[in-house]
Amino acid sequence: MPELPEIETIRRDLEASVGGARIIRVKAYDPLVISPAAARRLRKAAVGQTIASLERCGKVLIINLSGGHSVLQRFGMTGQMYPLPASAPLPPHARMVWDLGDGRRLVYCDARRFGETMVVKTVDLPRVLCEECRLGEDALSADLSATEFRALLADHRTSIKKFLLDQTHLAGVGNIYASEILHRARIHPETPANSLSHEQARRLLRATRQVMREAVAAQGTTISDYRTGENLSGGYQKFLRVYGREGLSCRRRGCSGIVVRSVHAGRSTYYCPLCQPPGG
DNA sequence: GATAATGTTCGATC
DNA sequence: AGATCGAACATTAT
């Protein structure tokens, strides 16, 4: 569920709510999400320390602890993370709980368990993100010119939709926003990445930044599972132009197209055949 | 019961 | 050798 705007929303919420809090106990309930070895390392690294700062790279949340370690949290499809009063019952699918020193606890919930918790030394972060997580530049903060972006595209003959989903090129775009970005840029999802013109690359880069920024401002998209760091629904689902809108009319002003859904690599893609003609 | 779901990885195949 | 594709992972909701 969570893509860059969702993780950024969680990051901001948690920074405000649990930034500076002390961790007094760590419980790990699921070896799929956090391996026994990682759980041991987490206890050693976290208990007695405080939450010093929160960062994000692509869809990975980075929790920096006092004492020199960082926790990397991937959210998979159904991950959620938010604080609760220690007196509240644990929500369903709680996979990890950090008891804080102030009568609250930070919980990570994940129904499908595609998420993963990793613990690394903070000094190793750049290497881990680049080499182990294989993340490209962050889609929101990447300092990238249209020319540089086109050079990136030129190396790949795969479709532009799959290129956008590949986190090694640009990190943070997932299946919802890939459709939204391509619609905004008026590019057909099957267009080979290396066939995009300079003008198309410019529109695509611009659309990527615009959609990421607007979705963060709306606190992400809640279709089913995603919750903010305050356990609330996001708001961007109200502004989606194509995703989930098969058979409905295109939301571009003056366009009379009907949104189409197609499936590639097992993922749904939504687009408007009028605004996004093949080869267009 | 069948299908699809916001993600990543791994093996097979080009 | 490197790129690319589809299946698999686990669970819930429609």
At a glance:
This protein has helices spanning 4-18, 36-46, 125-132, 146-154, 160-165, 175-185, 198-217, and strands spanning 23-28, 51-57, 60-65, 69-74, 79-85, 94-100, 104-110, 116-121, 137-138, 170-171, 260-264, 267-271. It has 7 helices and 12 strands.
Q: Could you walk me through the main structural features you see in this protein, from its secondary elements to its overall organization?
A:
It is a single chain. With 280 residues, this protein is of the alpha+beta class. The chain has two domains: 4-132, MutM-like, N-terminal (N-terminal domain of MutM-like DNA repair proteins), CATH 3.20.190; 138-271, Helicase, Ruva Protein, domain 3 (Orthogonal Bundle). The protein has seven helices and twelve strands. The strands form four sheets. A four-stranded antiparallel beta sheet has the order 1-6-7-5, covered by helices on one side. The chain has a four-stranded antiparallel beta sheet with strand order 2-3-4-8, sandwiched between helices. Strands 9-10 form a two-stranded parallel ribbon. The longest helix is centred in the C-terminal third of the chain and has 20 residues, at 198-217. The two termini are 30 Å apart. The mean pLDDT is 96. The protein binds a DNA duplex (14 and 14 nucleotides) through helix 6.
